[in-house]
Amino acid sequence: MSASSTPPPGTHDRPAGRGNATPLVKVGLAVFAVGLVAIAVDLALFFTGSENLPVWLNVMCMLAPVGLGVCLVGVVKETRRASPALVARAEAAVAADQKDKANRRKFGAKRRASQALRGENRNDDRDSNGSTH
User: Fold this and answer.
1) Helix or strand or coil: residue 51?
2) What value does the CA radius of gyration of the chain take, rounded to a whole number of Å?
């Protein structure tokens, strides 16, 4: 297969600007692995009949869910940052906002010009002393 050919259907290449993994994902995986080892040691000691296992070993077992959570947060942050859909949505929102501001300026100027041509003024129905007719 030459370098210029397209990949087969169903396979996805990584975008060129995307790295392997964020540091948050790597740290989460390491913490999760330590937690899994602690769980394996804890279960092995339990099945061999040991009682009153040390508290630090039970606390180390809690590293598995903590590492999983850290890893998931890292993946979500990486995905949201690199998502082309989110970038496109943000750019569309900025463009729509700029267009809306331009339309308000344009139509506001037209309205003021038409009011000036008709001689409309907000104070037309008031006397010089401020009382109404």
Assistant:
1) coil
2) 33
Query: What is the token pair recorded at 81?
Result: 């940052």
pLDDT per residue over 67-121, tens digit each? 999 999 999 888 877 667 777 787 888 888 888 887 777 777 777 777 777 776 5
Q: Model pTM?
A: 0.51
Distance from C-alpha of 73 to C-alpha of 75, rounded to nearest angstrom: 5
List Cβ neighbours of 22 (8 Å cut-off, separation of 6 or more). Answer: 74, 77, 78
DSSP state of 132: B
Q: Tell me which amino acid residue 106 is.
A: K
* Pair of tokens at residue 127: 């006397």
Show me where the domains of the chain are located. 21-82, 83-119
**CA atoms lying within 13 Å on the CB side of residue 106:** 6
**Phi and psi dihedrals of 55, rounded to 5?**
-65, -35
